[in-house]
Each structure stands twice: as structure tokens, then as C-alpha cells.
Amino acid sequence: MTARIDTTVILGLGLIGGSLARALKARGFSARVIGHGHREASLARGVELGVIDDYTMDLNAALEGADVVVVATPTLVAAGMLERILPLYAGREEAMPVITDVASVKGNLQRAAQGAWGGRMPPRLVLGHPIAGSERSGVEASRADLFRNHRVILTPDADNEPAAVQLVRDMWLATGAEVVDMSVASHDAVLAATSHLPHMLAYALVDALAQSPASDDIFRFAAGGFRDFTRIASSDPVMWRDIAIANREAVLATIDQFSGHLAALRKAVDTQDAEGMLQTFSRAKAARDEFAAMLEARQRN
Amino acid sequence: MTARIDTTVILGLGLIGGSLARALKARGFSARVIGHGHREASLARGVELGVIDDYTMDLNAALEGADVVVVATPTLVAAGMLERILPLYAGREEAMPVITDVASVKGNLQRAAQGAWGGRMPPRLVLGHPIAGSERSGVEASRADLFRNHRVILTPDADNEPAAVQLVRDMWLATGAEVVDMSVASHDAVLAATSHLPHMLAYALVDALAQSPASDDIFRFAAGGFRDFTRIASSDPVMWRDIAIANREAVLATIDQFSGHLAALRKAVDTQDAEGMLQTFSRAKAARDEFAAMLEARQRN
């Protein structure tokens, strides 16, 4: 089997970067996968585990000879990486490898890239976001099948080279993922609604209860439903601070939309509007049951 | 083995009533368990499954000879049942069996009982609430071990006969539950915080997203975290409408408390207050991790 490309470079070898490295090697998409980061122990462990073939802590050396560069650092660090990398190819864009990323927000990276590239998107920078994760983190937790049957959203730009978009698409298809295109604005709005807003609600709820005078009793009598509802409040605070900063506008918009609906429901409770409550709860149950059935069907495939 | 009491009557043979009947028979607490309800097919099925020994659709016949009566109907129906039953014992409280219930809200039942008993609590009416449930419902789903290692909250009143409280406590201990006493107000506040508020938030969130113009995309790209967070929005709308009506004041108070915290978090997102967000998220994560560890330790026992 001939590999599709020769060298993939992963910048940031955590759960996502490590799992992508494993998948690309396992599926023969890339002949070599090189890691780059600032924690040598983690990179050396990546070689030891067979996640990557080699590593370097020198960014210029990492970029040298790369066919595809995947920025797999935390969200806010990714913007800084693009601001460091893109100027290296100013005036010689034909030397630029295909660059992509895995961050949870796309708008801030688009702005960073356009800022570093004269107001346009670099033709070979294709932003992307695999909708996959795990409660665990780090290269030790990486798995070649992390993306199988998961969605990867790409946000190709009119300025992108079609061949660059195709290569990033092929890379994700090789991991077993389903690849979907969206605009940057749609991506950030959809992720704000389905992921960023729920995290804000879960954090706000648990913090509110923890600060309540009755918090001991509250947590003593909470049960399984509360555990499921608050699971995402156990997520990494730094990661979510960064996402809230990176996706500020969309997060604010979804909080406001939600707050409007909560205020309407509060009014129905206050006025004992039995019919209004029943309609809201029934609509929500129908939507959630449909969603759960769809997710189950997808995971059976 | 001699049974602790002769006859237990269950009013309303659903998941909770049926599971209690099974547990009391299995543990030999009650020599006979009689069911009462308005759907004969369900009662007959209860006999067929061995959940109850016999049934009647006549309330007066059911009460006749009962040592313990458990009102296991839906929340709002339970208030109406107390208003029907208590006047039957006016002027002859020594003839009243020990009466208890399983409803999710206690304040409305306390008010109903006091209203039907001259402003005091009847000495033999001991309100209670087993913190247990299942995604399934109905007598078919009943299980003798539903309450094992779960909490049951009793809200004994100064007007209660100590022997009546003890009998209800013994009944729940026989099912393998842990019995805890609280005031009616504390019960309703704690349940509002840990159960009623999360349900309102989940319903409001899913309904807000379902009504969004982008709802197709939103549900298409939601993943496992969203499924856990919204699981409780698949709960029975009628049951939750009734709980919101029965526990109106406490639900409104927790919505307001939560809304204040959400507004503070919104402000931190708006002003990109990185330190403030990190503090909120970190406090919430610590509280939630501690809660999850506690719940896990309890379930291991």
C-alpha cells in the first residue's frame, strides 16, 4: 500500500493529536508522522507508544518537509501558532504545506489567519473540527479509532486551493470519520448551541448549588439524573475558559436565546400556566427523543 | 417469620407503588398487599405478576382493615386523594390507618392535609418521598430492589404520632432504603435544586434549540455530552407539569438563583474576564467531581 502523503506533522500531541497520528499510521495515510510540542516527555512517550515516528521541539524543523501540518494545540494556543507559522511563508505561498487544525472554535482562527495573511485566508490553510473527545486526555489516552463514525466539520474558504481542501478531507475520511462542510459562522453557532451553552449552564448550575447555604444537603440528595446532567461540569476549566473567550459572540447569543426561553418557562410556572408548561415540556421531549434515536441509529452503523 | 403488619394498601399501582408492594412482600413486612386504582387492567396485571395479593377499585373497601395506606398516585392526584380520605376519619382519628405517600413535592400535600384536618397535620399521616425512579414506568417495570441503597426522605410533623412515624420508617427500611428526616420546606428546596431546576433547564434548553432556525444542524452535530445533558428532557411532561405546579415557590426561587449565576457568568464571558471564568469553572468542577465520587462510593456499598 502506498501512503497518500509522505509526512504529517502534529503540533501538540494530546488526545486528539495523538489519536489522529495513530489513525493516519494505522490506515497508511501518511508514511511518517512527526510530533512537535514543548513538553519533551510527552513527545518521547509518543515515540515509545508508536503514536509518532519521531519528534522535534523546533517548529521550523517540524515544518520542513511536512506535507500536512495539523495544529492540535489548545484553542487559544492554536491562534498564536497560526500567527507564528503563516508569516514564515509570506511571499512564497507555494512552499507552504497544507495546514489544518482541530480546535473547537473556528472564527478566532479565521481572524488570526486573515490578520497574518493580509486580510485573506491562506490558500492552503483549511480549518476543521473533529467532534470527538473523551473524558481522558493526553497522548496516553490516544486511540486510533477515536474518530470512527464521528463527525468532522471542515470550514473551507473561497480562497482555499481545492486540492488542499481535498487533502484534509481525505485525511479525515482515512480515520473513519464522516466529513461535513459548514461556514465558519455556522460552525461556531452550532457548536455554541450544542456544546458551549450546555457547558456554561452546567458550570453555572453546579457553582450556584455549591455556593448555596444548603449545598451539603443538596449534593447529599442528588441522584443519577443530576449526575448525568452535570457530567460536563467536570470538564477541563482551562479549555472551557479558552473556548468561551474564542467564541465570545456566539456564546453570548446562545446564552441570551436560552435565557429568553427560561424566562418564558419561569412565567408559566409563576402563573401556573399548566397548558403552556405541558406544551413546552412535550415539544422538548419530542425533540430530545428524536435526537436520541438518531444518535443511537448512527452509533449502530 | 411474622409479618410486621397485616395489610398494606397501595393507592396507585405504578412503578413506585408496584415496586414498594413487591419489596414489602419479598421482605415479609406486610402479610398482605392490596392494590387500588382506577385502571382495572393494571391492577389485575399486578395480581397476575404477584405484585399484589388482591385489588379493589372501591376506595372505602380499600381503606377498610388497612394498617398502612400508601398514596402512590401522581403528585397532584395525591393531594386530591388526601382531601377525599381524611374527612372519612373526622371525629374518629383512632380509626385512621397510618397513611404515607411517595410524591415528589411535600408542601402541597401538607397544605392539602392541613386544609382537610382543621389546620393541623393528622397524627397518622406521615409524608415521604423515595428518591428512586427509572426511565420505565408502570407496574410491569416494578422491581423489589428499586429502593435498595436509595434515600427515602420523611418529613415528620410535630403533630404526628411517634408510632406512626416509626412504622413508616420501618416500612422503608424493610425495602433496603436509607431513611432521612427533613422538614417539608427543606425537602422541597433541596429537591427543587437537585431535580426540579435541572429538569426546567433541560426542557428550556432543548425547546430553545428545537425552535431555532438552525435546529436541524444543531441536533445533527450534537454528540454524547449533549445526550447526557438533555436526558432528563425526555421525562414525562405531565409529571413535570404537576411538579412545577405543586412546588411553584421553590422552583421559582431556584430558577432565580440560577439565573443570577448565569447572568454573572454571561458578564464574565462578555468582558473576557479570564480569571473570573476560570474560578467559576474550577469551583464547579471541584464540587461536581466530589459529588460524583460520593455517589460512586455509595453505589459500591
From TrEMBL, chains A, B:
Domain of life: Bacteria
E.C. number(s) listed in UniProt: 1.3.1.12
Sequence similarity: Belongs to the prephenate/arogenate dehydrogenase family.
Name of the protein in its database record: prephenate dehydrogenase
Pfam families: PDH_C, PDH_N
Membrane spanning residue stretches: none
Alphabetized InterPro entries for the sequence: 6-PGluconate_DH-like_C_sf, NAD(P)-bd_dom_sf, PDH_C, PDH_N, Preph/Arog_dehydrog, Prephen_DH
Domain Prephenate/arogenate dehydrogenase: 6-299
EC category: oxidoreductase
Pathway: Amino-acid biosynthesis; L-tyrosine biosynthesis; (4-hydroxyphenyl)pyruvate from prephenate (NAD(+) route): step 1/1
Keywords recorded for this protein, A-Z: Amino-acid biosynthesis, Aromatic amino acid biosynthesis, NAD, Oxidoreductase, Tyrosine biosynthesis
PANTHER family: PREPHENATE DEHYDROGENASE, PREPHENATE DEHYDROGENASE [NADP(+)]
SUPFAM superfamilies membership: 6-phosphogluconate dehydrogenase C-terminal domain-like, NAD(P)-binding Rossmann-fold domains
Translocase as UniProt keyword: no
GO MF: NAD+ binding; prephenate dehydrogenase (NAD+) activity; prephenate dehydrogenase (NADP+) activity
rRNA processing listed as a keyword: no
